Amino acid sequence: MAGHSKWANIQHRKGRQDEKRGKIWTRIIREIMVAARQGGGDPNMNPRLRLAIDKAKAANMPADTIKKNVDKATGNLEGVSYEEIRYEGYGIGGAAIIVDCMTDNRVRTVAEVRHAFSKYGGNLGTEGSVAFQFKHCGQLLFAPGTSEDKVMEVALEAGADDVVTHDDGSLEVLSSPHDFESVKKALEAAGLKPEIAEVTMRAENTIDLTGEDAQRMQKLLDVLEDLDDAQEVYHNAVVHA
User: Fold this and answer.
1) CA dihedral in degrees (160, 164, 168, 170; nearest 10)?
2) What are phi and psi of 100, to 5 degrees?
3) Residue 25 lies in a domain
4) Rounded to whole angstroms, how far apart are CA atoms 44 and 195?
5) DSSP 74-138
6) Which of 103, 147, 196, 234 could make an S-S bridge to 109, C-beta 3.0–4.6 Å?
7) Which ranges of the chain would DSSP assign to H, the alpha helix?
8) Nearest to residue 35, comparing CAs of 70, 68, 75?
9) Is residue 127 a contact partner of residue 88, using CB atoms and an 8 Å limit?
């Protein structure tokens, strides 16, 4: 992992997401609906729904909007039915990309994803072509200057798999998706608030891109993230602006 740029890259991604605040609600609502439909409408019994509701609250979504969409998904209200689809492909320099979508029209979505890859220098791959390069895990990132000893002690005690110290001083706590919530709660209870906390697909190895390649890769990622049906875009490129 290119540790020196870990913090900068995560912050850049977070900034990009914040710029797209208008789309955030749409994506969270879809996530709430799919989570509720699959695991039921009680967040206490459905960790995925609880995580989606936490995201909704962090994005200042009103409680009645959250409830309405849970009700839609569990059959109490008429609503659109979404399905989850994962697309895998290659970006600039052979960088691996995963695009997780939620859609009510699979034909439209695959056409849009394929078009984005081909127009901006990538290639849409087959199922499983790049997913093996990522690990499904809980990830909590702490700013440089956070106490490494304290984070390590609390995180490992709470069941985290690993604590990674990067060259820039940022700390990354990794857990299984199942243990993510208990690890997050333990860290917050100890006064350790992560800058980013999510269940994600984390690249096992990264590819450094600079100059024109970096610009082309960023453009491809921006276009994929802007697709209406895209929920999350994961990749293993370290883009040096």
Assistant:
1) 0
2) -95, 125
3) yes
4) 24
5) TTSS-----EEEEEEEE-GGG-EEEEEEEES-HHHHHHHHHHHHHHTT-EE--TTSSGGGEEEEE
6) 103
7) 6-19, 21-39, 47-58, 63-73, 106-119, 148-157, 180-189, 211-226
8) 70
9) yes
| Whole-angstrom distance, CA of residue 241 vs CA of residue 95 | 16
SS3 57: helix
pLDDT tens for the chain, 241 residues: list them.
334 456 666 666 666 655 565 678 888 888 998 899 888 899 999 999 999 999 899 888 989 989 988 888 877 666 667 889 999 999 999 999 999 998 889 999 999 999 999 999 999 999 999 999 999 999 999 999 999 999 999 999 999 999 999 888 899 999 999 999 999 999 999 999 998 898 999 999 999 999 999 999 999 999 999 998 998 999 999 888 6
Tell me if 35 is assigned to some domain.
yes
Report the first-to-last Cα separation within the chain, whole angstroms. 18
In terms of residue numbers, what domain contains 43? 3-73
Q: Which two tokens stand for residue 40?
A: 């039921």
- Using DSSP, state whether 165 is helix, strand or coil: strand
CB 109 within 8 Å of CB 229: yes
DSSP 142: E
Q: Are strands 207-209 and 237-239 parallel, antiparallel or unpaired?
A: parallel
The total domain count for the chain is 1
- Determine, yes or no, domain membership for 168: no
Q: Residue 44 sits in a domain of what CATH number?
A: 1.10.10.200
Residue 39 lies in a domain: yes
